[in-house]
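haha ok so turns out i had the wrong file open the whole time. this is the CORRECT one, sorry everyone. sequence first:
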Amino acid sequence: MSAPTRKQIPHLFAGIVALGLAAIILFAAQRALIHLEHATIVSTAPESFALKNQGLAFQRAAAHSPNVLPIYGSSELLRPEAPERGNIFFGTAPTGFQLSPVGTGGANPLIMLQKVGALGSALRGKRLAFSLSPGWFCTAKPYIQGYKGNFSPMAATEMVFGTALDFGLKRDIAARMLQFPETLEQRPFLEFALRRLASGQLLDRVVFCALWPAGKIQTALLELEDHWAALHHIRHQKKPPPRLQKETVDWPQFIAEASKAKPADAGMIQEPLRFERKITRASRDVGFLTGVKASPAWIDLDLLLRCLASVHARPLILSMPLGGDFYDHAGVSRSARDAFYKKLPALVEQYQFPVVEFQEHDEDPPFLIKNQPHLTAKGWAYYDRALDDFFHGRLPRG
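then structure:
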């Protein structure tokens, strides 16, 4: 062995040791941050904030907590500012658990399934709920803006390069994600990986496998960034923990009291729209039924259910009812609306998951805010009872 070679060996060994120490330090720091996220879950679970929706750290902490029920949905999770709203009502864990909302305006099943695929094994055996907006399933128009506004590069990357979903399911999801190219314009690596997945060709699958180590490195970096952002949130924006207080809830009385509340008292509720004329009864049934049949949201919901089955989660699927008074006025009959109420449980029950679509409140105006896909205090009271039934192993009531 030459003298220069002998001199290089100690330097190489020192470099390896330095890298090893750095890896140990990063691993220890990550574990400490995860411990902090779990320790502060009582404060962060009931809150809704951007980092929770876009990152995964707080979602994982909620998934690992036995006394937290995550609920994924859209803007209905944030309105109205009423004590009956789920995250407020369950904030002190009156029946033994807190509700942890994830979602904001425009979040849809294609967004939700990416989070489920990213969380993967953290959801195994975990009870969680999903709130659906029926409007998604009654139109053939794609929800472009809502998808763009809620797209999480971190969740998408972790889902693509994770091991929770099989290749066939990832291929079908990738094909749907590629229909929204605007979200991938600044992410060429993710787009390239999705195209390899969606292709289904053997060569593309081999290429994707070759990309996998780089994808895992990117995932690790995104996770570390997410944990540091979570630390900043906990240090500077975390609210004081609520005082947990268990109590007995008389659900019939609770619902009766909530039903007395006037919608205008429930917070930021817009004035109802004024129609210049009423459309002829049932004149728009054909268009409505065409929308129900052709809506891409059914494809995304089926993919979401496949994801939940793949990770062995225990979900409850909730759907707000259609606003019957609005649709009656708009020329869509109750018999046409029944197509939605039949199709939703038929799909969900294929996976043996419980589903409550509250169809008996279709013509119950106080259940929804006038002309808006948001629950009133009364609507939330029914949601709360169904969530409580589900968490405690009872059959959820509508």
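The two ends are 80 Å apart (CA to CA).
again sry for the mixup
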